[in-house]
Amino acid sequence: MNLNLIEFAFFFYMFVGLYILSLLLLIYFPNKARLFSYPKGKPEPVSIIIPCYNEASSIGLAIESLLKIKYPENMMEIIVVDDCSTDNSAEIVCNYVKKYENVRLIVNKRNSGGAAEPTNIGIRAARFSYVAVADADSTPEPDALLKMLGFLQNEPKVAAVTCAVLAKRPHSFIQKLQAIEYVVIAWGRKLLDLVDSVYVTPGPFALYRRDVLIKVGLFDTKNMTQDIEIVWRLMSQGYQARMCLGAAVHSETPNRLRAWFKQRVRWNIGGTQTLLKYKNLFFRRGMLGAFILPFFSFSLFLGLLGLGIFIYLLVRRMLVFYLSTSYSLSANSAIASFQDMNLTPSILNYFGISLFIAGALFTFTGLAIMKSKYSYQHNLFNILFYMIVYLTVYPVIMVTALYRLWRGTYSW
């Protein structure tokens, strides 16, 4: 069989996609019994840092959710670092400071334009050896902290722990799609944890060793996804990150398409910044170079390749249709006939179907597993829309992110 360049690119795209999905499923089956397990922890003092900017509508709920955590009150402090909010966020926090001895407020001297700087301020001001970072619009489950702490107490090389980030109260259609995405990401991240390849500790709720964060230089204030960069930096210096699927935090998601698109572009910009920063560690420094960097790079490449193939085939088909139609009209002949239709399936069709089936298996398996733990309900139409339409937008987001990164026209 002779393949032209486009067919070869399509074949390569399908093969790598199937390989990655098959690898993740092969990790799952021998480990499915311990997906939600975690090492037993015991209460030790923890400082919880909340970076805050114009979060008047949610900061109170965030503080209250942390106060409800099942943890000794004298072993937990909550530090809110306000990044010069222009609303009454600081005033709301002040009310909690007056009421609770373990709640503190720090107001940054300037607006930094991101979450990294106020987080670093809070870490420096923390009194305890373990620090958690929480978003102002997120609410961790009451048992999350103790479940996550066991990883740091039982594994000396572990410096960071993340948990399942789930969508909070999804109402709009775009939020329901994100709810599906968050569930799939959570269980996929646990699979990566089983091969020591957790590459991000998302901002909604993550736990760290304070002394290690200070040792490696704290969060990168120039990176758009400091929660990815810090894990790569920790791994580059011999530390590990873990994922506790048995612990969860519920986070607000964008309820409008424009806000969603902006958030995802920022995530892709930050991920690309991190990839470029650590590109020299390919095949070095343990799983960071052996798996995470290639995994990230292949994901980026495949997304762009898939978009390129789609655009090429679409433009070619439109051009061929235009030229054939113009010729048929000028020659006064039939525009199309039954004999012109090619209904013979090719090996590329089979690969495409196989990739979709593998992706569906991965998605439905993850949703079923997470439903057994967190009782999330997902409409079948939403799941199919997520797989067929929602995910196909991601290459466009990546192209937009690369363009803005190249132009330097991006902000938090």
What does it look like?
- By secondary structure, the protein is of the alpha/beta class.
- The chain has a domain at 35-277: Alpha-Beta Complex (Spore Coat Polysaccharide Biosynthesis Protein SpsA, Chain A).
- The chain is 54% helix and 13% strand.
- It has an 8-stranded mixed sheet with strand order 3-2-1-4-7-6-8-5, with helices on both faces.
- α2 (59-67) links the parallel β1 (46-52) and β2.
- The radius of gyration is 24 Å and the shape is globular.
- The termini are far apart.
Give a brief description.
The chain is 54% helix and 13% strand. The protein has 412 residues and is an alpha/beta fold.
Top-tier CATH class of the domain at 35-277: Alpha Beta
Number of strands: 8
Fourth CATH level, the homologous superfamily of the domain at 35-277: Spore Coat Polysaccharide Biosynthesis Protein SpsA, Chain A
Unreliable stretches, pLDDT < 50, 5 or more residues? none
Largest sheet: 8 strands, mixed
Order of strands across the biggest sheet? 3-2-1-4-7-6-8-5
Radius of gyration: 24 Å
Q: What's the overall geometry?
A: globular
| Percentage of residues in strands | 5-15%
Descriptive keywords:
412 residues, alpha/beta, Spore Coat Polysaccharide Biosynthesis Protein SpsA, Chain A, 54% helix, 13% strand, globular
List the helices and strands and how they pair.
Layout: H1 5-28, E1 46-52, H2 59-67, E2 76-82, H3 89-99, E3 103-107, H4 116-125, E4 130-134, E5 138-140, H5 144-154, E6 158-167, H6 173-193, E7 205-209, H7 210-216, H8 226-236, E8 240-251, H9 257-277, H10 287-331, H11 347-374, H12 380-390, H13 394-407
Parallel strand pairs: 1-2, 1-4, 2-3, 6-8
Antiparallel strand pairs: 4-7, 5-8, 6-7
Helix pairs in contact: 1-10, 1-11, 6-11, 6-12, 8-9, 9-13, 10-13
